[in-house]
Write a structure and sequence with these properties.
Blueprint lengths: L3 H12 L4 H13 L7 E5 L6 H14 L3 E6 L7 H11 L11 H18 L5 E6 L7 H9 L8 E6 L5 H4 L2 H6 E5 L5 H10 L5 H11 L3 H11 L6 H15 L6 H10 L7 H8 L5 H8 L4 E4 L2 E4 L1 H14 L1 H25 L4 H11 L2 H8 L7 E4 L5 H13 L4 E7 L4 E7 L1 H5 L7 H5 L6 E5 L5 E6 L8 H6 L4 H6 L11 E5 L1 E4 L5 H17 L1 E5 L5 H9 L3 E2 L18 E4 L4 H9 L17 H6 L7 H11 L4 H8 L3 H15 L4 H15 L6
Parallel strand pairs: 1-4, 1-5, 2-3, 3-4, 13-15
Antiparallel strand pairs: 6-7, 8-11, 9-10, 11-12, 12-14, 15-17, 16-17
Length: 687
Amino acid sequence: METIRDVMIRLGAEEFTGRSFECRYFSRMLEAGTEGTARILNVHGTGGIGKTTLLTHFRRLAETAGAGFALMDMRDYMGNPELFLKDLASSLGGEFEISTVDAARSTMLAEQIIEHLNSLTQGRRIVLAMDQYEEAGSIDPWLRETLLPRLGANQLIVIAGRYPLGSPWKLSSLWRRLIIDLPISEFQYEEAKIYLQRQGVTDDALIDRLWLISSGHPLSLSLLAVNAGSGQFHYSDKKEMHAELLPYWLEEVPDETLRALVYAASIPRSFDLEMLQRVMEAPLSGDVFERLIKLSFVRSSSRGWQLHDLVRDAARQTFRKRQPDTFKLYLERLTAVLNERVRLKMAEGSAAAPDIYELISHSGHPILRAHFRHNRSSANYWEPVTDQTFLEMENYIEQRKAAAKSARIICSDPDSDQWFRYELTAHERLLRLTGWDTAELAAFGLDSFRLLRGPDGEVLGIAAMPPVRPETLPYLLRNPISGPYFRKLTGEHHLQESGLCKFIFAVDVIDPESRDLRSDSVNLIMELVLSGALLIACPPELPFYQDSHISMGFEPVIGIEDPYIYSCGIQASAYRLDTRGSRLDAFLKKTANLREKIVAIGEQHPMNQQAVGDSLLNQLTPRELEVAEHIALGATNKEIASALFISEAAVKKHLNAMLYKTGLKNRTQIAAELLRSRTESGPTRQP
């Protein structure tokens, strides 16, 4: 007779999704027996990532292979080795009387249980799996020094927890040789899609949205799927998910000091000790900061450390709701710190790009903010093409044409809750690889090309961007894609000013659905932009390319005669972005809201602070003050939206917020109040 437990096991097996690599690795270790040295599989990942579900599936794999399996929840033993041993023996078919009378009796019990466990390994493998290992406490040294060394060599140990095994394990070269590190990450898009479909969510657009909200985090997907399966998903469901998950993660953060630090760290995308001290305006001990960066949902980055995307979103949402004034103040301080860093680095001639990207993530175009929301340190890298690697580039292009496939690209800006979804057919994805020839461009030098390589050396993308100079101009004039743009110009206009100038035929990656590869593409363009260059591009007139260029600051070029028509009748558009000389500063002010000079925290708004303090506008946020400035100049909502890179709906939202805070009746009164405060205070003095 099938029991309810049997039904639950069967349903669990049917629902299990993804983790194919982890399961294959476990199965190989199970089959290996005493071959090799690896004996311990260390599964680790942040809360809700699916460790317990994976261990349950490991049990099914082990039982199918005829192996014994003991799953131990480390929360149950309260640091007591005897309870652990008795439960372990019981789960494998042994019964022992637990004694608490004296140390000698306890030692005898341990000897008996270890002997029993080793006897079970005669003829079959035993898997000892320990879940919630972060709760092991004082059992950890006992396991490492007493129990595990005495177990049979054909036993497989699985240790799962929020953190990788700590220093006492890693300091020993012998333990290091026995341990295989197996970090667990979020679902990829296809895995998340399969999971949601199994939960009854079948609408592709809704699946895309849930995947973005959850970042592929399994527990988040499970919570979202409850309402989404009935088609009743609302924005409030996202907030409820964040509210439900945050306490789960904050179980790791028992004291208020560390929790306050987590909330402060949710403001920037990446943080370091000095940044948090300046944002909070409070000294932080190295010990407290060390505890922060050791949390399971904090990861290292090229710029310091970052919170897990979901933890950051949830903490920011809670922080903004519970302490709106403090949240606003921290954000203002962060902006001031970043402005200072950018200005100083630019003056020194050192790389300011990471801090500029951080600024853009708070104040740039919503699509660019959506991109930089998930822009992480990539293991991929761009390199120049050489005579030795030229053939690799050609092979990449041929392979792309031979195995073309469609792509769905989705991203979101959480601050404005705007969603962006693009679809490219297989044919449309090949358009930018047509209309130019590698051999013809190579004749002018290989500096026209770049290769994108992965950490294992595989080619993941290419860029074709010939420089504009006297020897390349004839080719660019006759090329069907670039020719219409250059024929529009009189003489050699682009060559009259010094500085780098490039025409972008293509920046192509093997999988544009990959966040990392999209980041690599944007970072290449931004690298050129920040170096001071004139960039020209004539991509197909498709929404994905149009929005990508506009969001990065490119300006459309109007009046191109006889533009190139790509195959299937798609016309080429034209864009240019010039950051040579002083234009770079103007670009940064527009795109990243970089300020004119380094200012103190109390001097951040464009209008005189004393004037603001004395007026009804003292309650407004920096963004609302910017909107007010444009209103005073007579700009329409559409013009304000364009100038500030926000939607018209966001302008209306800011306007309504200003009217509510000030008690004013309309935009005319806002403009009058702004002008009154300035008139009464006189001109703002520069320090």
